[in-house]
Amino acid sequence: MSEAYLCTLDEASIKKAKEELNEDPNDRLAAVDHLRQWALQQSHMTCRTDTEFLLRFLRTNKFSQLNARKMLEEHVKLRCTIVPEWFGDVDPADPKVQKILDTGYVFCLPNRDDKGRRIVVCQMGAVNPKDKAISPDDLSRAGFLVNDAILRDENNMVNGFVYFVDFTGFTAKHLTFWGTETIKKRGQFFGRYPGRFKEVHYFNTGPLFEAMFTIFRSFMPNKLKNRNIMHGNNMEDVYKHIDKKLLPRDFLPDDYVGPCAGTIKDIIDDFKMDLMKRRGSILRDQSAFSYDLKKKTADIPNESFRKINLD
Fold first, then answer.
1. Where are the alpha helices (DSSP H) in 64-135?
2. Residue 137: CB partners within 8 Å, gap ≥ 6?
3. Is-above-0.85 flag for pTM?
4. Distance from chain centroid for Cα 204
5. Fewer Cβ atoms within 10 Å of its own Cβ: the N or the C terminal residue of the chain?
6. What is the number of alpha carbons within 13 Å of residue 81 lying toward its C-beta?
7. What is the DSSP-derived secondary structure letter of residue 274?
8. Cα of 25 vs its chain's centroid, Å
9. Rounded-to-integer distance, Cα 200 and Cα 165, Å
10. What DSSP assignment string belongs to 180-226?
11. Residue 202: strand pairing partners
C-alpha cells in the first residue's frame, strides 16, 4: 500500500502533466505503486519509495514504467557507486555547505517564470579557487543539495527548470581547480538524475568556458544540447529569455527601477532558511540508498506499457 499522498499541483501544472507527461490523476497512484513494488523486489538496491520521490522518475519519463525503472536504478548507482562523495552525509547545516551557499555559487530564484519554471543561478567565478578548504566535490555536493530541495515541490517536477550559468570572474585558476576528471564526473548525471531541464543560459563566456564546455557537452543527450543558449557578455539578450522582474538586483541595470527578486544575499538567506526547515527529511532520506551489483539478478521486463490503466 502507498502512503497518504495529497497532490499539490496547481491547475496549470495538472493540465501540463496530462498533456506533456501522460499523467492521469486517476491512474497516478497505481503507477507509483507499480514502480514501488518493482523497487522493493530488487535485492541489489534500496532507495526511497515514497510517492513524491517515485513520481520524479515517472514524470521525467512520461509515465513509462520501463524507462522509470531504468532511470531509478541508474540514479541509485550514481548516488552509491559512481559519485557517492556527492550525495552521502550532505547536511544543510554543515559550515562548509553554508559557506558555499553564501558565495552565491548556486541558488534558486524565488519566483517562477511565465511557464511555471524555477530558475537556478550558478556563478562559476564566485568561489575562490585558492581556498583549500573547498574542493570541486564540495561544490557538487552543494549543487545537488539545491537541486534535490527544489524537486521536493512537485510543481517543479512538472514544469521543470531553467539554469542561468554566469562565468563572470571565471579564470584559468578556476578551470584548473575543477579539472578534467571532475567535469567528466559531472557529465555522469545525464540520464541518471530526474528533472525536466528546459533551458541552460550561459553568460560572459570566453575561451576558458569553451575548454570546459566542450568536455561537458560530449555527455549531453541531443535534446539538451539544443537547449543551450549562449549570450556572450550581453545581458540585454538574457533579459529576452529571463524577465528582469525574476532576477536579482545585482544582475540588473543601474537605472532599472522595476520589480526584481531582491539582492542575491537576501535570496540566498531565504533559501538557506528553507533548506534548514527541510534538514530532518534531507538527512533521513540520504540513508535510504544502497547498491550492490553482485546481488543483481536478471531483470526481464514482462510489461511494455507506458502507464497502468485500471479500466
1. 65-77, 95-103
2. 85, 86, 182
3. yes
4. 23
5. C
6. 14
7. H
8. 24
9. 7
10. HHHHHHHGGGTTTS-S-EEEEEEES--HHHHHHHHHHHTTS-HHHHT
11. 165, 230
Task: Please answer whether residues 178 and 141 qualify as being in contact, where contact means their C-beta atoms are separated by less than 8 angstroms.
Answer: no
Q: Summarize the chain as % helix, strand, coil (round to 5).
A: 50, 10, 40
**50-55, long-range: CB within 8 Å, 24+ apart, which pairs?**
50/3, 51/2, 51/3, 51/5, 52/5, 52/152, 52/154, 53/285, 55/28, 55/154, 55/157
Please write the tens of the pLDDT for every residue from 120-147: 999 999 999 999 999 999 999 999 999 9
Say how far apart CA 249 and CA 247 lie, in whole Å: 6
| Angstrom distance (rounded) from CA 290 to CA 293 | 10
Residue 115 CA neighbour count, 13 Å, CB half: 17
Query: pLDDT tens digits for 40-92?
Result: 999 999 999 999 999 999 999 999 999 999 999 999 999 999 999 999 889 99
Residue 306: the pLDDT is: 53
| Size of the chain, expressed as the number of residues it contains | 311
